Amino acid sequence: MTRLTSLAQATGPVLECRDFGHAWSWENDPQVRLERGKVVEFETTDACLRCEARRTRTIEAPSMTILRTRMTYPDGYLAPRGTRYRRADARAERFDRMMSRRNTR
């Protein structure tokens, strides 16, 4: 997995997700676990429409409590270990790019 060394390396979709949050969409029909003929748990996989991250959640029924979440990120999304990018950092990078495009026209 390729990690970012700075937000300047991030693609537009990665910066948007780091700024706005992911745009999740269900990717598949839930896998269900039954006990005595009733659904007690199900698992969904969602895909981000922008950056293609994947989220798999295990959800308890009927309370709809999320029991577990597993994330898979695309190359170029994760920061180096020990580094944390804030949403404002991504927003600043997006703004800098916009201003740069403006100044080159």
The chain-level structural class is alpha+beta
Shape: elongated
Number of strands: 5
- Count of folded domains: 1
Secondary-structure element series: HEEEEEH
Q: Between the first and last Cα atoms, what is the distance in angstroms?
A: 36 Å
Average pLDDT across residues?
94
Main sheet characteristics:
5 strands, antiparallel
Question: With helices defined by DSSP (H or I, 4 residues minimum), what is the helix count?
Answer: 2
In terms of per-residue confidence, which ranges show pLDDT below 50 for 5 or more consecutive residues?
none
Structure description:
The protein is α+β, with helices and mostly antiparallel strands. It has one domain. It has helices at residues 12-20, 87-103; strands at 24-26, 31-35, 38-48, 54-60, 65-72. Strands 1, 2, 3, 4 and 5 form a five-stranded antiparallel sheet that branches.
Would you summarize the structure shown here?
The chain is of the alpha+beta class and 105 residues long. Helix content is 25%, strand content 32%.
Record the SSE blueprint.
Elements: H1 12-20, E1 24-26, E2 31-35, E3 38-48, E4 54-60, E5 65-72, H2 87-103
Antiparallel strand pairs: 1-3, 2-3, 3-4, 4-5
Helix pairs in contact: 1-2
Keywords:
single chain; 105 residues; alpha+beta; five-stranded antiparallel β-sheet; 2 helices; 32% strand; elongated
